[in-house]
Amino acid sequence: RMYAPPPTSTSKTKSNNESTSSYTQEAPKKKLAPEHDTTQMKINTEKIREARKLKKIREQCKKIWESEEGETITLEDIPYRGMVAGDILDAMLKDCEGEDEIKRKIRDEVRRWHPDKFRQKVGSRLVQSEADVIMEEVKRIAQAIISYAK
Question: How far is CA 52 from the centre of its chain?
């Protein structure tokens, strides 16, 4: 059997001595444009992703700098992994306003992420099998900060 679509034409009788006419009813045209602004949706999605990334970075920093002495630090705990220098600095300086605050923050971060200072402060808590890789990441972060500070 073949499927036959329902007929698309109907007859309509007009009143007051008018003749009967047949016409074809067309389906209502669909809107091609979406009901929502996709550009704004993409912008909002990107803002949400950025906020989540910053939150994760802050949690990782808090674990490194404010955690208990017995808590170990793995490579997964190091923030800014996989980020380029500009993105590292953007994340660090996100909440800074004014030139003085930026300078102070950079100075603090240079001291904090300097490989020797880092090893001195948290070296005993590093997972020993990952210590060399962690220190390479710390050096990369420190270089990004120092390059901006110059």
Answer: 6
